[in-house]
Amino acid sequence: MEEIRIGIAGLGHRGLHWIRLLQKVPGYRITAVYDWIEPLQERALAEIPYRDGVKAFGKYEDFLAYEGMDAVGLVVRQREVGAMAAQALEAGKHVNSEVPGAYTMAECWRIVTDVERTGLVYSLAEQTRFWGFVDGWKRLVDDGLLGRITYAEGQYVGYYGTHQFFQDYRTGKQYSVEELPDHPEARPTFPHDTPPIIAASYDLSILLKVLDDRVAEVTAMSTKRPSYAHPQIRKPDVQVALMKTEKDTLIRMLDGHTQPRPHGDHHWWQMIGTKGSVEWRRSRSEMPKVWFADTQMNDWSEVDWRYERTDAPPEARGSGHSDADYYVHMYFRDAVLKGEPLAFDVYRAMDTVAAAVRAIDSTQEGSRLMRVPDFRPNGERPPGQMPADPGGVGLR
After folding, report:
1. Mean pLDDT in residue range 265-291
2. pTM, whole model, 2 decimals?
3. Quick check: 294 pLDDT over 80?
4. CB 191 within 8 A of CB 79
5. Cβ contacts of residue 78 below 8 Å, gap of 6+?
6. What is the dihedral of CA 72, 78, 82, 86, to 10 degrees?
7. Before 100, cis peptide (omega within 30)?
8. For 212-232, what is each residue's pLDDT tens digit?
9. pLDDT band at 160 (very low <50, low <70, confident <90, very high)
10. How far apart are CA 18 and CA 20, in angstroms?
């Protein structure tokens, strides 16, 4: 196989981005598109110069049955995303899926065991872990310059206006809250009611990569529904999770997407260790900072860490998310075509997804402390076999 024949499922804003990008990354050929909203199919096909060679589908089952594709690019915003990934694997297709990856523990396990049984590639297209500063921070931790990391924080508090929460499903056009009085045909989209803490997998992906760790326990709390900022949206404005890792680091995760915020830096992180600390900038007018305990530093020192990588190849430039989008497709391509192992394999991917899923479960069960399983095979669960309780249990 010299190129991946890929079908794109989900033709909204991100789906269009994938279609444009995959025409620039060597090793891909788009052969199919899927969306149940028919006008979005035509919009997507218009982005492909060789559109006559691309099949369009309105039913996911028909899309998966198409023999002219090897892989599925799953770019959907719906609760069934985990089941859809598993269906694709069971249909013999490799899967590259946008975050969040899944919304239930059973779906996480289904994806893991399908990969183990089939040997197919599953990649979670979480791009923030490829930002330049992440490797810089990982080097500090790996070299012991920060000592033992005892506490870390990550947050994703971005304001998306209200444009993604209402849609006319006949045309695919999205509307803001302010436009609703003039568009009674607009209906709530799935993100309208999605627990924001599910997006914790973005920032958790970064922290777990730096720490080389996994979350073992999580508890979480939420503000009430609907949004205080926009009561027309049923999402809570803020959800916070407190996590404990296998190596005994405490992590606080904060997520919210409906409250007004300055545009730009939606994400923020910090790590506190026994020999020093690092933290990201609080605004675009600041710089990230570092402090070492044993170097006669009396205050934080600014460091020019950035999202962009200093070692990015020319083809990564302009790919999206400060050039990071290129890497999720590069590594998926090389795993499928060359058999190269994914550093962010299905187990590490589910480490991030499951921690966010369990945070949602905790908010729904009175902040109950929840266990996050290790998805790797062991003496009690051989590869390809579902655990006795795939839904998981709380600790108390």
Report:
1. 95
2. 0.96
3. yes
4. no
5. 84, 190
6. -40
7. yes
8. 999 999 999 999 999 999 999
9. confident
10. 5
The pLDDT tens digits of the residues spanning 125-141 come to: 999 999 999 999 999 99
Q: Which residues pair with 57 in a beta bridge?
A: 34
- How high is the pLDDT of residue 395? 54
Specify the pLDDT at position 393: 57
One-letter identity of residue 388? A
**Reduced 3-state DSSP string for the chain:** CCCEEEEEECCCHHHHHHHHHHCCCCCEEEEEEECCCHHHHHHHHCCCCCHHHCEEECCHHHHHHCCCCCEEEECCCCCCHHHHHHHHHHCCCEEEECCCCCCCHHHHHHHHHHHHHHCCCEEECCCHHHCHHHHHHHHHHHCCCCCCEEEEEEEEECCCCCCCCEECCCCCCEECHHHHHHCCCCEECHHHHCCHHHHHHHHHHHHHHHHCCCEEEEEEEECCCCCCCCCCCCCCCCEEEEEEECCCCEEEEEEECCCCCCCCCCEEEEEEECCEEEECCCCCCCCCEEEECCCCCCCCEECCCCCCCCCCCHHHCCCCCCCCHHHHHHHHHHHHHHCCCCCCCHHHHHHHHHHHHHHHHHHHCCCCCEECCCCCCCCCCCCCCCCCCCCCCECC
The predicted structure's pLDDT at residue 77: 87
- Specify the residue for token string 């045909």: 185
Q: Is 64 exposed, middle or buried (0-12, 13-18, 19+ CB in 10 A)?
A: buried
Mean of the per-residue pLDDT values of the chain:
95
d(CA 100, CA 135): 22
108 Cβ partners below 8 Å, 6+ apart? 82, 101, 102, 350, 353, 354, 357, 375
**Span 308-319, average pLDDT:** 95
